[in-house]
Specification:
alpha/beta; seven-stranded mixed β-sheet; 35% helix; binds adenosine-5'-diphosphate; binds magnesium ion
């Protein structure tokens, strides 16, 4: 059954011990394997527990049941390791009671207690939920401890009913989701870390494709591993050489004295897949592939070998990896210099960025725990590295350079957790200036790739920087200084007034606050100094005075961080008078972070080594220092806020919404925009506050509708809007008439529509006039990779001009909702000012959380654009909504499975 790997409809995932298994439905071709599973691979005792007796025919019956022609009443899943079927899970869905399915499970003895049953169940739960199953039921023997433990650990509630020797187990699938998800995530983390051991803590390494020629890539890597002092054996593989540099070389991986944990493939692209297959057969557990330019076929074969033989893969197009842990000491890369040992984890997609980053870190004096050049990221990604660093006991700072995201939702979940423990910094590469200009709704137009990525970083607590320089500058501060209080108030202190003003401007640009300082500061300063923020000490300040000033500020509680800017003057050439000494000789680590700026410094950032081994980041530029402080402040804010639960959206009618969607897609299989009636039905099923709209086919019905709606309208007024299929912006086309009171006005409006739009006109929508309020844009759009993105913006039709929007990836938390409102430049308008009352924020938040839930529940919801939502002091109402649906399979971002690179996807 080797064809199961990478096949459509199958998935790969990791067992608790890091083994790769392939999961997929069983079919007639699997009969032999299923029979073997239930006979050769299970002891008599296991069989007795599975089949409640020792009947010889039971395995045959099981094989018949599972491997007949596919039928709708059966969901079955096999788990393969290599070509061996190691387990199966299935459920029978009775036609008359499709919400309750009867579960069965079998795992080969040899594979017990390695998480195979749990993994099978997780995938079966996913498949069954997709079929509308609500409950799993199973009969088990009371003595079957193994299976009871599997149920107990799953993370779903389990109800047991004892009946003599049998226990009837009942597992509701729709309850306590958060608990289940957390359990799944934790299993995923442990399995991932287990699978990465061979890669990041290998006991032995082979370099495959080492030519004798010095200067070739393989040769260089081999030499570096040897020189780096790798703690285990390292072997060279070369079919044409018996020795290289005086050490033996081996003709093949199979001929090595022992199976290496890790193989670095330094062979050319066309033979990478064969070399990988050879490694896999020999039992290698991890590969680093250096070659670039693999064709699609070669890529597929490489992935196939990795999945089939349980190998994790770095690359292709990787520069290699380096581990400085003294127990490992592996320098398996051919980029720059072996990094200094330390505590920063570094993973880069581009090798060039990696070399630059390592150089700068080395120069600065930040040591590295592990460095991985991810290259084309077919398998191992930033997400894996974050999980490794989270638990390697060494890493306390993570630096990532990512150009693309394979599974952004899994990445976001991991990052959200890891950023609580250590700072995670990234260079946000690939920001594209080109938005989606052609988009037909304001919401879709706002969802540019940059906006999506920024939302991801913000929600995960990642420190996103715009260049390698900014990354290193922020890292320099976060690595050595304490975090400021979340308020982030800064005192700027300089010995030259003009520089202080520049630094104050830089702080303002970075969004940092410069508060008033305590009045008694003045006493500590030379005559003529200004103790206002920015503090100008004048050039006359000596080290002792400056030190006293800094200490007073540190303990004043008025500020949370210090920015000290010094310029050399004629006075400072006398070392006794050099104010820099105040920084060096001050107390060790201060209570609050300090960033220094020395304007005569040539490098952008370096450390000054102060007393007690305290390292102080010193910048050449005020803007760099201010930005670094702002990043630290943002991290402090992130840590100060509770993680937050998913925002509440009660009373959503999923069933109705689902049937509306499937009804529409049945008649429009390619998807499209819903008409006004369908739009209203769908949005109202999720409790979204749409204004009353009455559909009028002609002038007369428009007048009748207006008469009925008039008393609901503000000052007895109505609104009439022309409708035709495919319309985009109505008011721009002259299709909206507001403020209509008399029948004659309604009549006239309709007549004008007929005249203007002729045969196109399908009819009109009549609404009560909404009370005046703040016009907002609220919308959601599905990103194919990142999932739903929720947008809140100022201004109805003026939203593009105002260009004031906040975006978050769904599912939204309560914290996201608060952030979206306060982040808008127009927030004061919503929060109330100048005697104007605040708008009903609870109503606005409810709109956003309902949109988030709608898009999460219905992957077919391609976009929903509520524009405007008119928010007043009591309530918010949407007067114009558009919804587009697209056929799209449901996607469970929580299902554990290994990512498949696009190149390896079966065509
Ligand atoms: P479109 O966005 O297609 O141009 P809208 O239905 O959003 O059309 O109407 C445009 C503008 O007209 C809205 O931004 C709002 O200012 C006003 N408007 C529309 N319907 C109403 C209503 N029921 N009550 C109050 N104002 C409305
Ligand atoms: Mg509109």
């Amino acid at each position: 059954m080797s064809t199961a790997h990478l096949r459509r409809g199958t998935a790969e995932a990791l067992l608790a011990d890091g083994t790769t298994v392939t999961l997929g439905p069983l079919g007639p071709q699997d009969r032999e394997a299923v029979l073997a599973l239930h006979t050769d691979r299970m002891s008599e005792e296991s069989r007795r527990l599975r089949f409640f007796g020792v009947s010889r025919t039971a395995p045959l019956l099981a094989a018949d049941r599972l491997c007949g022609e596919p039928r709708s009443g059966l969901l079955s899943l096999g788990a393969w390791v290599g070509d061996e079927l190691i387990g199966e899970a299935d459920c029978e869905i009775p036609e008359d009671r499709p919400e309750t399915a009867e579960l069965a499970l079998a795992v080969a003895d040899e594979w017990h207690r390695r998480g195979a049953a749990t993994l099978l169940l997780e995938h079966l739960v996913h498949a069954a939920r997709g079929r509308g199953v609500r409950v799993f039921e199973a009969d088990t023997l009371a003595g079957n401890r193994g299976v009871h433990k599997v149920f107990a650990d799953l993370g779903l509630p389990v109800h047991r009913r004892l009946d003599q020797a049998e226990v009837r187990v009942r597992v509701p699938l729709d309850e306590s989701d958060e608990h289940y998800r957390a359990a799944v995530d934790e299993r995923g983390r442990r399995a991932d870390v287990a699978s990465l051991g061979a890669l990041l803590r290998p006991g032995s390494v082979a370099v495959v494709g080492v030519s004798r020629r010095a200067g070739s890539v393989g040769h260089a890597v081999l030499e570096r591993i040897r020189r780096g002092g790798f703690t285990g054996p390292v072997w060279a593989v070369n079919p044409h050489a018996a020795e290289i540099d005086g050490e033996p070389a081996y003709p093949s991986v199979a001929a090595l004295p022992a199976v290496p944990d890790l193989a670095v493939l330094a062979v050319p692209a066309p033979v990478v897949a064969d070399a990988a297959e050879e490694c896999g057969r020999a039992g290698v557990r991890a590969l680093v592939v250096l070659a670039s330019g693999l064709g699609a076929g070669e890529a597929r074969q490489l992935m196939h070998a990795c999945r089939r033989h349980s190998m994790r893969l770095v690359g292709p197009n990787s520069l290699g990896s380096a581990q400085t842990d003294p127990d490992v000491c592996l320098d398996a890369e051919f980029g720059g210099a072996f990094p200094l040992p330390g505590t920063a984890g570094v993973a880069v997609q581009s090798g060039g960025v990696g070399i630059a980053l390592l150089k700068r870190l080395a120069w600065l004096g930040i040591g590295v725990s592990s460095f991985v050049s991810l290259g084309d990221k077919y398998d191992v990604s930033g997400n894996d590295l974050l999980q490794w660093w989270e638990s390697d006991g060494r890493t306390d700072l993570a630096l990532l350079h990512l150009e693309s995201f394979g599974s952004p939702r899994a990445f976001a979940r991991t990052a959200r957790r890891v950023t609580r423990k250590l700072p995670v910094l990234t260079v946000d590469a690939g920001r594209s200036p080109a938005g989606r200009r052609g988009a037909a709704s304001h919401t879709a137009a706002a969802a540019t790739p940059t906006v999506v990525r920024e939302a991801l970083f913000r929600q995960a607590g990642i420190t996103a920087t715009r260049s390698i320089g900014e990354l290193v500058e922020a890292a320099a501060l976060l690595h050595t200084q304490p975090l400021p209080a979340p308020r982030g108030a800064v005192a700027v202190v300089s010995n030259a007034g003009g520089i202080g003003i520049l630094a104050a401007d830089a702080c303002a640009d970075a969004g940092l606050l410069l508060p008033e300082l305590p009045a008694d500061l003045q006493k500590l300063l030379p005559r003529g100094a200004s103790a206002h923020n920015p503090v100008d000490t004048t050039a006359a300040v000596g080290p002792a005075e400056l030190a006293r000033c800094l200490e007073a500020l540190e303990h004043s509680r008025a500020v949370d961080a210090l920015l000290v800017c010094l310029v050399p003057t004629a006075l400072t050439t006398d070392p006794d008078h050099d104010p820099v000494r105040a920084l060096l000789e001050g107390p060790g680590r201060r209570r609050i972070p300090v960033a220094a700026v020395l304007l005569d410094q040539e490098v952008p950032v370096r450390y000054l080594n102060g007393a007690d081994g305290n390292r102080l980041p010193v910048y050449a530029d005020t803007a760099s220092a201010a930005r670094a402080l702002a990043h630290a402040r943002d991290r402090a804010r992130w840590l100060a806020e509770p993680a937050g639960r998913e925002a509440d959206a009660h009373g959503c009618d999923v069933k109705t919404a689902r049937s509306l969607v499937s009804g529409f897609l049945a008649t429009s299989p390619g998807g499209g925009w819903l008409d006004p009636v369908g739009t209203a039905d769908l949005l109202e099923s999720y409790g979204l506050p749409l204004t009353t709209s009455v559909w009028a086919r002609d002038e007369h019905s428009a007048v009748v509708a207006a008469q009925a709606l008039r008393r609901l309208g503000y000052e007895g007024k109505v609104v009439v809007k022309a409708y035709w299929a495919g319309q985009v912006h109505k008011s721009a086309a002259g299709a909206v008439r507001v403020d209509l009171r008399a029948d004659s006005e309604v009549r006239a409006a309709y007549r004008e529509f007929v005249e203007a739009f002729g045969a196109r006109l399908a009819g009109a929508v009549v609404q009560p006039m909404a009370a005046p309020g703040v016009e907002l844009l609220a919308g959601v759009v599905q990103d194919r990779v990142f999932g739903p993105l929720v947008i809140l913006g100022m201004g109805g039709t003026a939203t593009d001009v105002l260009d004031d929007r906040a975006a978050r990836l769904a599912p939204l938390t309560e914290r996201d909702l608060t952030g979206m409102v306060t982040e808008l430049r127009g927030a004061p308008v919503l929060l109330g000012r100048d005697g104007m009352p605040p708008v009903d924020l609870a109503a606005v938040r409810s709109v956003l959380s309902r949109l988030s839930r709608l898009a999460t529940d219905l992957p077919e919801l391609a976009e929903a654009d509520l524009n405007p939502v008119i928010a007043g002091p009591t309530g918010a109402v949407c007067v114009d909504a558009r919804v587009r649906l697209e056929p799209r399979p449901s996607f469970d971002p929580y299902l554990r499975r290994l990512r498949r690179p696009a190149v390896a996807e079966e065509m």
